[in-house]
Design brief:
Elements lengths: L2 H13 L12 E6 L4 E5 L12 H11 L5 E8 L7 H11 L3 E6 L5 E5 H4 L10
This protein binds tetrahydrodeoxyuridine (THU).
Length: 129
Amino acid sequence: MTVNKKLIEQARLARTRARAPYSGYAVGAAVLGGSGAIYPGCNVESGAYPTTMCAERIAIYNAISAGEESLQALAIVTKDGGTPCGACHQVIYEQCGDIPIYLASENSSEAVEYRSTQLLPFPFNLNEH
Ligand code: THU
């Protein structure tokens, strides 16, 4: 299995662990670290709504917490292959740079590939200010 397929499979598995009782929208993510290890994330919702955390950010923070210094690719699985939210786009760009992002839906083995800067063409970069 290619590393991209593994990444998508891990995102699919992570999605089964989502805690989304309020929205019903389960999201699974998986990020590939520079070491070759894969880190999962799922969305975890809270009754205090703004403290909910997205799957992508959990996966990225999971990898960083484990000691990964570079993050090389991200896969996201939702029911419909949806794109990340704006906050996640910014975190993906800042922590991963211009990486491939694979978007997959629950009923398809196919994924669509984008790059971070395609999905967020004008990211905020504090170093430019
Ligand atoms: N969600 C994610 O996990 N990632 C995104 O990029 C978009 C939104 C979650 C947050 C919330 O639990 C649910 O999807 C509906 O917004």
